[in-house]
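Sample entry (170 residues):
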Amino acid sequence: MIVSLSVLAVISAATAYAVPNFNGFAEQSPHEMASAPIPDPTVSATLKDIQSFQQQNAAALQENGAVLQQNVAMLQQGAANLESLRQGFSTQQTDLKRISNQLSLLLARVDSLQNAVTPPTTSSIPQPNARTRVARTWRKRTSRLPKPAGPVSVRGAPLSPAPAPGWGAG
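Predicted structure, serialized as tokens:
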């Protein structure tokens, strides 16, 4: 109850204060306006400079946005090219492995064919030397030739006993 009485007292005091000044509020017409303040020339110049800088910054931001979009497009294109190169490299690497395996198989086949062509030899059986056989048969043939009668040259050709006429006449 004390609280409500104190609230009532505050409201009464506010009313008593506002009633004498109420006529002053009613006398002001809504058409009266306060005069516009006269701006300071330095403040006006500063405001114009700020507005100019804002416009320049807005234009620069738009230009930077366009450049950024171009850079993003080029970056995306570069990423696509890089991915294409990676795929090509991977394909080439796979092809290289396949060709390497094929080459290894081919070399193994060549080795097996070469081993199949040469007869197996052991170290206990000496290999006949074909050159020795040719030399033996050549000696046998040369011994069967008749020996020439008369003088013989160093290389084995018969020499004529007398020089032919016309030799040394000159």
